[in-house]
Amino acid sequence: MNIIVVGQGAMGLLWYHHLATSITITNLSLLASNQHKLADDNYHFIDSQSIAYQGKINYAYDEQIQHADVIFLCLKSFQICSALEKIAQQLKANASIIFAHNGMGTLAELPETLINQHNIYALLTTHGCLRKGPLNIIHTGIGITDIGLISGNVEITEQQALTSLLNHALPTVTLHKNIVERQWLKLAVNCVINPITALHNIDNGQINNNIFTKQIEKVLTELVLVARSEDIHLNVALLSKTVQQVATATAKNCSSMRCDVLAHKPTEIDYINGYVHKLGIKHNIATPENTQLWQAVLRQAQRNQ
Ligand code: PAF
């Protein structure tokens, strides 16, 4: 099995490290956008028990890309389409592609040829990971991972083999028939926690403050209506509870969007509240709260530049 992890961020290196140290992997490489500039090929990893590791990175070049069986994209949602377009010509026709980003809507951006020639999976993970510097990460919290096919036609045994390989590297990874429903659940969590923590510059746990209760309910009510038009059936009360639980479990964390805003980096807002706004227009459903949060984060990013 030839696997390429794409992305030198926290998630990319988390999976690279675990796949590299997992005995079942025969051929692993990392495609980093800045690999031509990186003088170093050593990475540093501190695991969840504070044990430090150092390893060598095997960078991916044309040969690895041409032979890849799995392209594991550990990138932000807004980087997915362009990253794939850069390597599309070199990919084997049936190579599997894994998306591991927050938000939804990236599949619809891909050219049809890519969608027709590849099997595409979505991977959702709750592992906490922090990038301390270039090629230097800490595994801050053990989580779980869900995976499932979002496009293509693959025998269940092949899906199970890929899941088992990932599970061997960084357990637990569970295969789901209906990963889209789980994507929506994650989207709901991200639609609330990410923009509110970014706009108010607060830790995740502070979302549970009563001052946000009404706003959270509006965000989730709109999302449930839009989801229904996409044939996904969710429940506002259950989603509220899930959001509360995630905020409690990650109380001291800085959400990815807040981190991006503080680091003056682009955010995934177009694929989170922006996605709900876009689907609202498509289905003729008003989404004022999501639209307002989407625009407020965009404005904040503009002010930051
Ligand atoms: O984007 C994030 O930061 C995470 O998905 C979540 C669940 C909001 C926890 O911080």
Account of the 3D structure:
The protein has about 300 residues and is α/β, with parallel strands linked by helices. The chain folds into 2 domains: about 1-175, NAD(P)-binding Rossmann-like Domain (Rossmann fold), CATH 3.40.50.720; about 180-305, N-(1-d-carboxylethyl)-l-norvaline Dehydrogenase, domain 2. The protein is built from 11 helices and 11 strands. It has helices at about 10-20, 60-65, 80-85, 110-115, 155-170, 180-200, 215-230, 235-250, 255-260, 275-285, 290-305; strands at about 1-5, 25-30, 40-45, 50-55, 70-75, 95-100, 120-125, 130-135, 135-140, 145-150, 175. The strands form 2 sheets. The protein has a 7-stranded mixed β-sheet with strand order 2-1-5-6-7-10-11. Strands 4-3-9-8 form a 4-stranded mixed β-sheet, with helices on one face. A hairpin with a 2-residue loop joins strand 8 and strand 9 (about 135-140). The chain is globular. The termini are far apart. About 40% of the residues are buried. The structure holds pantoate. Pantoate binds next to helix 6.
